[in-house]
Design brief:
This protein has 182 residues and is α+β, with helices and mostly antiparallel strands. The chain contains 2 helices and 7 strands.
């Protein structure tokens, strides 16, 4: 009994030592930078919103269709672009760049869609999103309310189905009662 008790105390002391000696969490958070566009498919003449966000202060540059826009020392940059009129489906890249100073001990951004390059104390993050512009003539007008109801009335079918389910339930219960009383 004493061996089991001393083994349990030793295990508890070992667990507390492991928990107490665990390394502290990283002092600096990971740098998170993102670029989004909404919508990414639009017709000529329509607008889309490009939104760049980060948890560090960035010198932003967003460039689309030859139109470059900058914003310095900001964690969020929102801008609106207007699609040009095109005669065929055209894909135009939206380039986003964030130049920021990496805090001491922070983890730089790493992902499949972004790149980083150290340039002294500054780090550059880049991302490209393809925006698809459709010709205006390819737009289809949605159907109006003046179309005929070709599906026929469906409320009576629903009511008939519910009636049949109720009738089947009643017949099943009645036949079970007859079998049990016999």
């Amino acid at each position: 009994m004493k061996k089991v008790l001393s083994l349990g105390v030793a295990a508890l002391v070992g667990l507390l030592a492991v928990i107490g000696l665990a390394p502290a969490a990283q002092a600096y958070p990971e740098v998170i930078i993102d670029l989004t566009a909404q919508p990414t498919v639009l017709y000529g003449g329509q607008t889309f919103t490009a939104t760049a966000t980060a948890n560090v202060s960035c010198d932003w540059t967003l460039e689309w269709n030859g139109d470059s826009r900058d914003k310095n020392a900001s964690q969020k940059f929102v801008t609106v672009y207007t699609a040009p009129d095109v005669t065929k489906i055209t894909k135009i890249p939206l380039h986003g760049t964030c130049v920021y100073e990496l805090p001491d001990g922070a983890t730089p951004v790493t992902s499949k869609v972004s790149t980083k390059a150290a340039a002294g104390p500054l780090t550059t993050w880049k991302r490209t999103i393809m925006i698809t512009v459709l010709p205006r003539g390819s737009a289809v007008t949605p159907p109006g309310d003046d179309l005929p109801n070709t599906g026929g009335p469906d409320l009576w079918i629903l009511l008939a189905g519910l009636g049949l389910v109720g009738l089947g339930t009643a017949v099943t219960l009645r036949s079970r009662r007859k079998v049990q009383t016999a």
